[in-house]
Write a structure and sequence with these properties.
The protein is built from 10 helices and 2 strands, in the order H-H-H-H-H-H-H-E-H-H-H-E. It is an all-alpha fold. The chain has a two-stranded antiparallel ribbon with strand order 1-2. The protein is globular and about 60 Å long. It starts with a helix and ends in a 7-residue tail after the last strand.
Amino acid sequence: MDTTQQDAQQRSAAARRRRELLEAADRVVLRDGPQASMNAIAAEAGITKPILYRHFGDKGGLYRALAKRHTDALLDALRAALDAPAERRERVEATLDTYLSAIEARPQVYRFLMHPSEEAYQPEQGFDVGRHSAPLLRRLGEELAKVIAERVELGPGSEQLARVWGHGIVGMMHAAGDWWLGERPCSRAQLVSSLADLLWGRLATAGDRTGGPGF
């Protein structure tokens, strides 16, 4: 076996091990939510904490890896909802419902990503929720902006307007979903319909771009 093959095997083994550690972290987060600790995750993976640090650096590194893992999955689901063969209002509602059903199905994961325990705020822990969760929301906003720009004809200044809408819609979904998950003042279907009503202004009358499925 030459050096190139050895390097490829080592990279593959490292990627597999990292994936296994993230799956162990997911299990702990599902069980413990915001209280999930590096000690508990290391124990779940059957390793020592220094080995866990070697793979992720610190809790912030692990958080970023978990956030990317869940954000990638959520984005795939949101794109599928946006591209479904249905009327625009139905697709908007399906997209809102996809986000809300994701946080409802795994509330402990959501709270870990957005509402860490009090110890996470301590400077000596080297972990600041705002420093990590804000980029996650920005990424969702930018991705939605791309979808809007590709599917909706907005006229002059369309790129900037798509970004405003993308970040605004993500902010609305996040704030409304966070409130709803904590208080459950209505059913998910009622919340979806109400949020879609809020969006159903200029978006309802904007034309679709030619050559695509529209938004």
